[in-house]
Amino acid sequence: MQTVKSIIENLKMLTHPEGGYFAEHYRSSESFSPAGFDGQRSYATSIYFLLEKGQFSALHKIKSDEIWHFYLGDPLEIIEIEPNGNLIKTKLGQNITNGEVLSYVVKAGNWFGSRPLEGSDFSLVGCTVSPGFDFSDFEMPSKAYFQNIFPQHKNLLEEMCR
Ligand code: GUN
User: Which of 27, 60, 133 gets mutated to test ligand 1 (max ligand atoms within 8 A of its CB)?
Assistant: First the structure.
Protein backbone atom coordinates (compact mmCIF):
# COMPACT_ATOMS: atom_id res chain seq x y z
CA MET A 1 0.00 0.00 0.00
CA GLN A 2 1.24 3.49 -0.82
CA THR A 3 1.38 5.57 2.30
CA VAL A 4 1.85 9.33 2.43
CA LYS A 5 5.30 8.72 3.92
CA SER A 6 6.33 6.37 1.10
CA ILE A 7 5.11 8.80 -1.59
CA ILE A 8 6.94 11.74 0.00
CA GLU A 9 10.14 9.67 0.21
CA ASN A 10 9.84 8.22 -3.27
CA LEU A 11 9.18 11.57 -4.96
CA LYS A 12 11.74 13.32 -2.71
CA MET A 13 9.18 15.91 -1.68
CA LEU A 14 9.97 18.97 0.46
CA THR A 15 7.64 21.08 2.60
CA HIS A 16 6.12 24.01 0.72
CA PRO A 17 5.78 27.47 2.37
CA GLU A 18 2.07 27.50 1.39
CA GLY A 19 1.53 24.12 3.15
CA GLY A 20 1.86 20.50 2.06
CA TYR A 21 4.75 18.93 0.15
CA PHE A 22 6.14 19.45 -3.33
CA ALA A 23 8.78 18.20 -5.72
CA GLU A 24 9.62 19.93 -8.97
CA HIS A 25 9.97 17.19 -11.60
CA TYR A 26 10.23 19.34 -14.72
CA ARG A 27 11.89 22.64 -15.54
CA SER A 28 12.49 23.49 -19.19
CA SER A 29 16.17 23.97 -19.92
CA GLU A 30 15.42 27.01 -22.10
CA SER A 31 14.28 30.35 -20.69
CA PHE A 32 12.87 33.63 -21.99
CA SER A 33 11.90 37.14 -20.80
CA PRO A 34 8.10 37.17 -20.66
CA ALA A 35 6.25 40.53 -20.68
CA GLY A 36 5.04 41.47 -17.21
CA PHE A 37 7.72 39.42 -15.44
CA ASP A 38 10.87 40.79 -13.91
CA GLY A 39 13.68 39.02 -15.84
CA GLN A 40 14.14 35.54 -17.27
CA ARG A 41 11.85 32.59 -16.61
CA SER A 42 11.96 28.95 -17.70
CA TYR A 43 9.45 28.26 -20.45
CA ALA A 44 7.56 25.86 -18.16
CA THR A 45 7.83 24.00 -14.85
CA SER A 46 5.82 21.24 -13.22
CA ILE A 47 5.59 19.96 -9.65
CA TYR A 48 4.05 17.11 -7.74
CA PHE A 49 2.05 18.55 -4.83
CA LEU A 50 0.69 16.58 -1.89
CA LEU A 51 -1.69 17.58 0.89
CA GLU A 52 -2.68 15.22 3.66
CA LYS A 53 -5.73 15.32 5.90
CA GLY A 54 -5.52 18.34 8.19
CA GLN A 55 -3.19 20.29 5.90
CA PHE A 56 -4.07 23.13 3.56
CA SER A 57 -2.37 25.29 0.98
CA ALA A 58 -2.80 28.90 2.13
CA LEU A 59 -4.23 31.54 -0.19
CA HIS A 60 -1.57 32.91 -2.51
CA LYS A 61 -1.19 34.06 -6.10
CA ILE A 62 1.29 33.69 -8.93
CA LYS A 63 1.70 35.42 -12.30
CA SER A 64 1.15 32.37 -14.52
CA ASP A 65 -1.95 30.31 -15.22
CA GLU A 66 -1.53 27.07 -13.26
CA ILE A 67 -2.76 23.77 -14.70
CA TRP A 68 -3.73 21.24 -12.02
CA HIS A 69 -3.89 17.47 -12.62
CA PHE A 70 -5.24 14.82 -10.27
CA TYR A 71 -2.85 11.90 -9.77
CA LEU A 72 -3.44 9.77 -6.66
CA GLY A 73 -5.45 9.53 -3.44
CA ASP A 74 -8.66 11.32 -2.60
CA PRO A 75 -10.32 14.48 -3.94
CA LEU A 76 -9.07 17.95 -3.11
CA GLU A 77 -10.86 21.28 -3.13
CA ILE A 78 -9.33 24.28 -4.89
CA ILE A 79 -10.55 27.58 -3.46
CA GLU A 80 -10.14 30.72 -5.58
CA ILE A 81 -10.99 34.34 -4.94
CA GLU A 82 -10.98 36.45 -8.07
CA PRO A 83 -9.67 40.04 -7.79
CA ASN A 84 -13.33 41.27 -7.70
CA GLY A 85 -14.05 39.03 -4.67
CA ASN A 86 -15.93 36.30 -6.55
CA LEU A 87 -15.42 32.90 -4.89
CA ILE A 88 -14.87 29.71 -6.94
CA LYS A 89 -14.70 26.19 -5.44
CA THR A 90 -13.54 23.27 -7.61
CA LYS A 91 -13.26 19.59 -6.70
CA LEU A 92 -10.25 17.90 -8.27
CA GLY A 93 -10.61 14.11 -8.26
CA GLN A 94 -11.45 10.97 -10.21
CA ASN A 95 -15.21 10.87 -9.72
CA ILE A 96 -16.03 12.79 -12.89
CA THR A 97 -19.68 11.66 -12.88
CA ASN A 98 -20.09 13.30 -9.47
CA GLY A 99 -18.82 16.82 -10.11
CA GLU A 100 -15.09 16.25 -9.75
CA VAL A 101 -12.66 17.25 -12.52
CA LEU A 102 -9.40 15.55 -13.47
CA SER A 103 -7.72 18.77 -14.49
CA TYR A 104 -8.35 22.44 -13.84
CA VAL A 105 -6.74 25.80 -14.66
CA VAL A 106 -6.32 28.49 -12.00
CA LYS A 107 -6.07 31.81 -13.82
CA ALA A 108 -3.00 33.97 -13.20
CA GLY A 109 -3.72 36.66 -10.60
CA ASN A 110 -6.53 34.81 -8.78
CA TRP A 111 -5.92 34.21 -5.09
CA PHE A 112 -6.04 30.45 -4.49
CA GLY A 113 -5.43 27.69 -2.01
CA SER A 114 -6.47 24.07 -1.61
CA ARG A 115 -7.31 21.39 0.93
CA PRO A 116 -8.27 17.71 0.95
CA LEU A 117 -12.07 17.38 0.81
CA GLU A 118 -13.97 16.23 3.91
CA GLY A 119 -13.23 12.50 4.30
CA SER A 120 -10.09 12.59 2.14
CA ASP A 121 -6.92 11.05 3.50
CA PHE A 122 -4.44 12.64 1.07
CA SER A 123 -4.33 14.09 -2.44
CA LEU A 124 -1.39 13.94 -4.84
CA VAL A 125 -1.75 16.36 -7.73
CA GLY A 126 0.37 18.05 -10.39
CA CYS A 127 0.73 21.81 -10.93
CA THR A 128 2.21 23.01 -14.22
CA VAL A 129 2.95 26.64 -15.08
CA SER A 130 4.22 28.61 -18.04
CA PRO A 131 6.15 30.91 -17.70
CA GLY A 132 7.93 28.64 -15.24
CA PHE A 133 7.64 29.03 -11.48
CA ASP A 134 9.84 31.51 -9.61
CA PHE A 135 9.33 32.41 -5.95
CA SER A 136 9.63 36.12 -6.86
CA ASP A 137 6.25 35.78 -8.66
CA PHE A 138 4.67 34.17 -5.54
CA GLU A 139 2.68 36.30 -3.06
CA MET A 140 1.21 34.86 0.13
CA PRO A 141 -0.06 37.73 2.32
CA SER A 142 -1.21 37.47 5.92
CA LYS A 143 -4.75 36.73 7.11
CA ALA A 144 -5.06 40.40 8.16
CA TYR A 145 -4.39 41.52 4.57
CA PHE A 146 -7.14 39.26 3.22
CA GLN A 147 -9.61 40.20 5.96
CA ASN A 148 -9.16 43.82 4.94
CA ILE A 149 -9.78 43.32 1.20
CA PHE A 150 -12.33 40.46 1.34
CA PRO A 151 -14.35 40.94 4.59
CA GLN A 152 -17.26 39.07 2.97
CA HIS A 153 -15.18 35.84 3.11
CA LYS A 154 -14.35 36.13 6.83
CA ASN A 155 -15.11 32.48 7.73
CA LEU A 156 -13.22 31.04 4.78
CA LEU A 157 -10.22 33.27 5.48
CA GLU A 158 -10.07 31.87 9.03
CA GLU A 159 -9.45 28.44 7.49
CA MET A 160 -7.32 29.24 4.43
CA CYS A 161 -4.70 31.77 5.61
CA ARG A 162 -1.67 31.63 7.84
N1 GUN B 1 7.35 25.32 -7.60
C2 GUN B 1 7.47 25.63 -6.30
N3 GUN B 1 6.31 26.02 -5.79
C4 GUN B 1 5.42 25.96 -6.78
C5 GUN B 1 4.04 26.23 -6.85
O6 GUN B 1 3.39 26.62 -5.88
N7 GUN B 1 3.46 26.05 -8.05
C8 GUN B 1 4.16 25.62 -9.13
N9 GUN B 1 3.50 25.42 -10.27
N10 GUN B 1 5.44 25.35 -9.08
C11 GUN B 1 6.07 25.51 -7.92
Answer: 133
**Cβ < 6 A, ligand 1 pocket:** 16, 22, 24, 45, 47, 66, 127, 129, 133
pTM for the model: 0.96
Domain boundaries, the chain: 4-30+40-160
CATH number for region 4-30+40-160: 2.60.120.10
pLDDT digit string (tens) for the chain, length 162 residues:
789 999 999 999 999 999 999 999 999 999 999 999 999 999 999 999 999 999 999 999 999 999 999 999 999 999 999 999 999 999 999 999 999 999 999 999 999 999 999 999 999 999 999 999 999 999 999 999 999 999 999 999 999 998
SS (H, E, C) the chain: CCCHHHHHHHCCCEECCCCCEEEEEEECCCEECCCCCCCCEECCEEEEEEEECCCCEEEEECCCCEEEEEEEECCEEEEEECCCCCEEEEEECCCHHHCCECEEEECCCCEEEEEECCCCCEEEEEEEECCCCCHHHCECCCHHHHHHHCHHHHHHHHHHCC
